[in-house]
Structure formats: C-alpha cells, structure tokens
Amino acid sequence: MALWADKYRPKALAKLSYHDNITEELTRLADSGPNFPHLLVYGPSGAGKKTRIMSMLRRLYSASSVDNLKVDVKTFVTPSNRKLEFNVISSPCHLEITPSDMGNNDRVVIQDLLKEIGQTEALDFSGLFHITKKDNTLTDDESTTPQRKFKVVIINESEKLSRDAQAALRRTMEKFSATIRLILICESTSNIIDPIKSRTLGIRIGLPEKESIRTVFENILSNEFEAKKSFPEDWDDRCIVYDHIIEECDQNLRLGIMMLEAMYMNNDTINVQTPVVKPDWQLVIESLAKGVIKDRSVARLTTCRTILYELLSHAIPGKLLLEKLMFNFIKMIDDYSGIHHNNQVKMDIVDAAALFDERLTLGSKDIFHLEGFVTKVMVILETDISSQ
Amino acid sequence: MAIIDDFFGKNTVKSNKAKRMAPSATSSSTTTATNNNPPLKKQKLDNSNSKKIDVVKNENLSTNSLLSAEDILKTIQDADPSLLETDPESEKMNFFQLKAKQSANNNSNIGETMDIDSIPKGRENCLNGLTIVFTGVLPSLDRGQCEQLASRYGAKITKSISGKTSLVVIGTDAGPSKVKKIKSLGIKCIDQQGFIDLISKMPADGGSGDAAVKELAKKKDLERKVEEEIEEEIKKEQEEEKKQLKSQIKSTSSSSSSSSQAIPKTVVDKETQLWTVRHAPTEMKHICGNKGNVEMLYNWLSTWFNKPHNMTGSTIDDYKAVLISGPPGIGKTTAATLIAKKLGYDVIEKNASDFRSKKILNENLKVCLDNTSVAGYFHHSKLDPEEGVNEINNKRFVLLMDEVDGMSSGDNGGVAQLAQFCRTTKTPMILICNDKSLPKMRTLDKYCYDVGWRRPTSREMKSRLMSIAHREGLKLDPNLIDKLVAITHNDIRQIINIMSTVSRTQKSLNFDNLNQMQDSWEKEVSLKPFDVVAKFLSPNKYSINDKISLYFNDMDIIPLMIHENYRITKPSRINSNNKLSELKQLSKASDLISQSDLVNSQIRSGEQQWSLLPFHAIMSTIYPSFEIQGQITNRINFTSWLGQNSKKMKFDRIVQTLQYHTCTRTSTNNIDLRLDYVPFIKDKLLQPLLKRGSEGIEEILEIMDDYYLTKEDFDNILELSVHGSMKYEDLYKKIPTSVKSGFTRKYNSYVHPTMIYKTGDSVSSSTRRDKDMSIEDEEKDNGDNGDNEGDEDDVDLKKDSLIKEIKPKAIKNKPKATKSKPTTTKSKVRAKK
Fold this sequence. Notes:
heterodimer; A: alpha/beta; seven-stranded mixed β-sheet; 56% helix; B: alpha/beta; five-stranded parallel β-sheet; four-stranded parallel β-sheet; 38 helices; globular; disordered N terminus; disordered C terminus; ATP-binding (chain B)
C-alpha cells in the first residue's frame, strides 16, 4: 500500500520513461564495468535523479544486492570530542550517506567514513547468498553478477557539503578510486567546488516534458483500475486534468503523482473543474501573498511575521519560501486592479527577491530577510498604487 | 544584579548630565547661589541643633515679612484656561495613543528646551510646605528638571491630584482625568512662567502659611528625632565600650565565632573601620526598610525549635530554611546576622570566600546539622562561653550561607548539597543571594521559604543616614538624600561609602559639590533588555557611543528584541500620517536588520570576527531604531525568535527521523520529504479512518509498516502541517475517539518492522526483540520488494505468520487461544537467536 509515487517507481533502466538519451548513456556507463567514473548527478527535485541512479546500480551490480538495504547508525567522534550519530543506508554493493545531516561536522564523516570504506575491498557475497537461499526465482543473467572491485557511495544533498568537506573529498576521490566510486547528487552545482566538478562526470537530469508526465500519469492510472473509474473517460478531458496538475506541481513529477493520488482520494468523481489538491505549505504561501497585495499596512506585517514563522518552523526552507512568494506576487499582480505599471512593479519585486535571496544564503536568521522582503514588496506596491 | 527601576532617579541623572555639559552655566549659577544667600548657608553649616531653625526663621522674618504661600500665589497669574480644556477625542484614547499624540505635538517644540540653571535662584527651602503636581508638557522644561527644581526647594511632589494638593503646574496636553479633578477641586493652576515666578518670589522656608509652618515643624520633629537617636546611640556605645573594657580585662581571649560579628569587640580599631561596619545597625529598629520581613524572620527564628517543619505548607514556619534574595547593599546580611544575634544564636557564616563544594560542605557542615543521634551532645558542646549560658538559644546556632549565587563551578555540587541540608537540617538555616532567578538557584526553591528583600526607600533611610552623618561630623543636606538614593539605586551601603569618601576631603555634602562627584558615584547597572529597547525605540538624545554601550548590555538579546518590536512605534521622523512614508521608514529598518544578519554571521560563524560587534550594534540596533523611533504604541514583547528557532529545530529533527525511517522507501532528502511527501501521506493516513472508521485501521497500519512509520511518526506527520491564517478543519479531531483508541490498541498489539537499529540506544528487552525482527525484516525485504512469497527462510515465514496471525485475532478480540500463539512464536524466535 505504498503511495503511487513509490509504487510505480521504475526499477530498471529499461523501464524509465523519459530522457531516453540519458538512459542510454547510463546503460552504457553501467556496462562499462571497471571504467565506471565518478558521477555528479544534478537537476531539480522530482526529476528522477535517484530513480535513475538506483536503476543504474541495479544494472551495474544485481538487483538483489542493490535492494538488500539496511540502515546502520555509525558513531563518529569530532575533534572536539563530541559523539555524533550518523545514519548510513547500505547494501552489499553501495552506500548512501547524507553528510549535511551532520551540519558543520560533515567533514568528519567524509574523512572517516570514506577512508574506512576505501581501505577495505568490497566483498560481494551475492553469489554465496544465492546458494544458501536455494533460490530458483532468479534468472541466470542475474545470478552471474559481475564481481565489482569497487563500492558505490552515493552522497545526497552534496551542494550542502561545507567547503572543508568538499576539500576533504577531492583527494579521497583519487586515492581510493580503486575501491570507491562516488555519485554526488545535488540540485544545483553552483555550490560544488571546481576541483570536484573536474573529477566527476556531470549528468543533468532535467524536469520531464509535459507530454512525458501525461504518459506517466496515464500509465499509473491504467494500472489502478479503481482509480481510473473516477477520472474522466474522455482522453482529452483527462489531459486537461493532468495539465492542471502539471501546472500546479511545476513539472515536479513526484509532486505531480502525489497530487494525482490525492485528487483521487479526496474526490469520488473527477471532472475538468475539480480543483487540484495542493500541499498545505503552498496554500499558506498563496494566502500570505494575497494578503500582502490586498492590504499593505503595518498590521499586516505583524500577521505576516506570524505566518512566516510558522512556515519556517515547520521545516519549510526559507529560500523556497522566498521563491514561491515572489512567483505568487508576480502572478497575482496581474489580477489586482489597483496597480498601474505592472511590469515595473514585477521587475522591482524580482530585484528585491534577488537581493534578499543572497542575504538568505549569507545570513543565518531567515525570518529577518523574509520580513525585509515582504516589507519591501509592500513599499513597492504602495508606491505604485498611490502614485497617480 | 542591580536593576534600574527608578524612573526618576535616572531622569535626574540625565538632566544633571545635561547640566554638566554646559559648565559655564553651572559655574555662574553656583556663584549666583552663593551671592544670593551666603549668610543663610553659613548659618546652616554652623548650626546643627534645633536652634538653627529659629535662627533661620528670624532671618526670614527680617527679609520677607509675613508673606504666606497663598499671598504669593495670588499674585501669580492663573494658567491659560485653554490648557484646562481637554480634547474630547483624547478621553477615548488609551495611554499609548495619548502618549503618541503628545509626542507628535511635542515635536514642533523640540529645540527650545531651557537649561535649568538659567532659572533665577529662589530662596533656601522656599517651596516648603507646598504639595505640587506637574501635569502635561511644559513648553521648555522637562518633567525631571521641574521635579528636581521643586524638590530642591523643599516642595513635596505627588503624581495625582487630591485635596491636599496646593498647586498644579500645568502644561499642554494634560491628562483628561487630571483636568477634571483640577476643575472639581478648584485647585490653583499655574503655567511654567508662573512656576518660575513662584520660585523667585517665595520667601525662605515657605513663608508664613499654615502648611509651611506645619511642614517646618515636621522637619524639626524629624531632626529632633534623629538627634535623640544619635544621643541614645552614643550613650549606648559608651556603655558598650565600658563593658568591653571590663570584659577585656576579665578575659583577653574571645571566641572565634563572635569575632565574625560586626561591631563591638574590636573597639580599639574603630578609627580604621569602614563606615559601613562602624555604623552597622545594632538594634532591630535601625534596619532600614523591610520591616515586615525582619519581623517575620525574627518570629520564625525565635520559634524555630518548636515547629514541626513539614515542608508542605506555604507559610514561613513550614520551612527549615529561608532564602533571602535582593540586590546588593540593602542590608540582607546585616539583618540576618543581627536577628540571629539578638536572639542569642551563634552564627556560622559561610560566604563566597569559602570553598563550598559538596565534599567540603559534607565534611565541615554536616556534623553541625545532622545531629539527630548526638543531639544532646551538641547541646552541651556547642556552647558559646562568652555570653549568658542560661538562655537556651545560646546552645544553638544558625547557619548563614551568604552569597549562595556565588557558588561557582569550583564548588562542585554545592548547591545541590545545600538543598539537601535545607531538607534535613536540625538547625535553622538562612541563605542569602542576589538573584534567585538564576537556574542554579532553582534547586533550592523547593526547600526554602523565599523572602524577597526590597530596596529601602529614601524615606526609610533618611533618619539613619542623617544620624550617621551627624555622628561623623558631616553636613548632609536632607533634601539631597533623595538624590543620593537615586544615584545609587537605593544602595544604602554605597551611600554610606560615598559619605565616607566625601568626609575625607570636605565638610559638607550638598547640591553644589554633588554634581562634580556624580560621575564616579553613579552606579553602573546592567539594564534589562526591555528597558534598553524602550530607550532605543522612543525618541532619545543619546550619543552614538551611549547607544553602543546600551547595546552591549546584552548584545545577544537586544538585536532580537529590536527586530521583534520595531513595528510598534509611530515613527516621529515622518510628520504626515501617510501610510506610504510609514511603510518606507519600516522598510528601511527591516532592510538594515536584514543586513545586520550578514554581519552577525561573520561574527558568529567560522569567521569569528568579534571586532565587528560595534558595527553589528549599529546595523542591527542603533540605525534601525533611529529610523523608526517614535512613540511606542504597544507593549514591548520579548523576542519570539528564540522560541521559534527551537521549534524549528524540533521539527527539523522530526523530519530527520521521518527521513531515516522512510529513506529506503522514498529515496528523498529531508526537504523533499517534507514538501512532497508529508502533506499527502497525511491525507493517505487519515482518509481511511475518516471514510471507513475502524475498518480503515488495517489499511493504515499496512501503509505505516510499509514505510516503517511508528505511531510517533504518525502523530508527527499530523503536527507538521501548516495552516497560516487560513481556516481549516482539523481532520484528526473529526475521527471518533473510539476509532482512534482502536487504532492505538491495534498498533500496540503487534511488533512493527523498524528500519534502524541504534546501538546502545535503549536497553530494555522489548527493543532488543525489535531489533532482531528488524534485521529479519530487512532480510525479508531484500530479494523482493513488496511481495513476500518464495525466498524467505524459516524464521521469516514465522515472522510473517506472526504478523498476519495476530491481526485478524486482534480485531475479533478472541481471548485466550490467540494470545498464547504469538508468545510461543516469539519465544521460538528468541530461542533461535
């Protein structure tokens, strides 16, 4: 009873439905065996980075060993003698770590953990495993898994690695290249230092095309017979529903599938007018933006602060908040009649957003900058509205 | 820690600072003052007994014959009647709005303030007997200056108008209620000019009016009382000295415990003693202020051994120990020692100069307290051989722990041990500290009765200070005491020290030489963030350096407080009531605050550029508050950032745990999990319960096991959703309680797969079993995702059957047979392990 997004996640490279050229490239990489390079996989969230990597690993090793996942808690001791706990997802042939969980101590993780793995040669017991299990279901192709000399280490959120950690990484990548292959995953490479970029093969996985998303949706529904009944019969109508979702999820496929499922769960029958179920935080940001455009006053600022605090404290990142707010403002300005120079106002707002985005990156107290942005937007709007 | 709570004290200080800034004016005024009435002063200096007043009076009669305050008031014009008209609007406004309006009107007048010294000097004590109320805003004098002026000439200043009020000095925008009262009582009103005229016209000592005479008599009374006291004390001292001499002849040795007591034993060194020691109170009535507390403490101590002390009630008699807390220099230790001594107790004092770690307390003090078994022994051994043996209290002693909050990190476990003593002690204990709100003092809360020592007021200190001054031969102007009290924030010890310092060089302490020495006396106090923020946000004339030092009162909290409160002012920099300009001003401030965060991260992150702190002071606090300073229109709140930040940490941790639990399923990072999964998985978890009630439980548990979610995670997912200012209905609340409890019961009925095993996380056997299962579960998960036929080994099959078997049974609630089965399988599992 998993969510659709997980249930219909492709498991093999052959089953991936879009970005065929990348799929082909990955297939060749997986087949290249010992020449497998370090990878830097980047692209927006919900594009399918992890899905592709895992599919590739399944081809590189075997599906049975890659999916043999477990989570270990490792303890590290920082130079200042603090004990840290760190979760590592591992299978016999690969490891997945998120060093940014450790905040500023990520360097210790990189140094200790990678060295530890690098200094031990990977032993694949998968062959042994099959015998004891008396396994008949596996095909011949999979049981004769090629033995790999190296383990793959997947580093999640690598853009959040501190400079120190990245520096620690660069030498490790070469020194232990016999035993370790790294796959760095990030949303944007702007925070990755050049030495690492030069040591990795960059693969960008962009958001899927609208057409591909429609196909994915259709594919899911064709497997969910129950659900399909509540969606419109007509293909064109269904397309309109899909397009609504695609617009709301910004082509984030994961979010899109979630919305599709939520739509089915919340409505018995779905037609063209059925509203898309949006995540709670999006709704809150929208209402916040609406409030600011309608009422530009000191009192409104006070309520804004409360809402911003609520969003921030409930683990919504400040940068995303700023971005969503800006796009909402820009979208709503066209609908608001009191504004004289739409384009000028939009440009000013984007300008302000850019300024405060930088400050969000450099500073530490998100609320200061978000509040600064909202106040600035109020001034921009009020200046335009009161000008005659 | 001392706190400024004396508004007027600070004001006078401020105005005096202003005065010192114009030295020429000061010097000229002092010269005029001395020219005006040199004979009067001489008189006053030379005569210290009651004769003085008569002489002064005679002098008065000769210069200003037979004028009373009433006569003079008649000659002064009434205030402009328009000042008495209230704005009907203002009656509806609340305090803050009114203030805001006043300041708005005020702004136009700013700049013509008058120096207090340019006002012609009046005669000595000339406002004596008058009760004056200042209301409204005077055109060129501020309230503090007026009050200083009036009190200098002996007037009594009150805040509210009553029948006793002799005149009102009124300015613009007087409070509507006050104006009403003035009208109904028909009190004489004068304006600023009238007030200045009054000062110059009034005869010395308030003329011949009834009130003035009465007041004069009162003052005379006070002086006589002081003198009587002094005489009495001197007499006593002499007796004491004689006694001392006698006893010294008798026995040259003195007991060790009594040497710690303040006065009498070391008479020989009297000249070298500090004034504070020399004049420490020897009688209960000499203690200034806190009469109630002193009495309570006295009663408590005197009946200590007759009380059960069950530690449960709320009165002082239920406690074995007392915790006295209060700012320094107000006589806490003095009072405690004196009370114990008066009752004849022997005092064991330990203060911050002693080591007070757990070990040492146990070694040295425990024997004194924990004397249940050998109580009789102590009764006899712990005698004070010096004093009268027949009094029972002499066999007992009081443990006085001074400066408890000074128990530092070196005193390992001292406070906890002390709390332990407080519980079990067989002798009375008195603990003294400055700040009982400190976290380390909290351990004592439960076992001590808390006595808050207040600062004595100037009225309470007056006679004592006068008598000390008299005995030391220092001329002290009675009107000056208020001022001394204000400077030192009611610290009587410091006042005595100041007097002692002055006596080295000068023969008198009066208004004229006070100002010169004020800087060195002015007590450094750290201000509370609230006071500092109020100073920043309201219009002020501090220099930038003053402001920086204000920021450094608490550089962590104050910037946050400014951010929290920068919207509550009505900026005075903009005159019009324009919304746009107000927003612009706010935007400037918030922009600066946002920039200051960049500086802050330079300081506190890896860079550690602490030299940037003054810059941060300006960016985060001084500049923004300069942009928006104006009348404060709302309450100043404590910063919410701290709370919100810890809330954020909590939710971050929750998301992290969720991610750990679900990571093998979802393959996302924390942020995407929060953004994409949480809102929808919440729906997915609630919908079955909403739609199908208890039948949906099965489905939910399946989802939860699939994602390795625990019940705790379930609750956390619900908690993670946000609503902002939107209306929403709490879906979880709509689920009937029976379903909810059924869900919980069901959840608890079997063991769930877990993904993570933490080494040493918990030692209970149940979690260990959990661990075993989780490993097995993972094995089960390995080969195939989702469908679990085929390749499981023996244990896995059992495991699986275990889960599947309980479920239907738990629903049907069949009794015995079902219960036995899972346990047997479980034990089998354990056996296998």
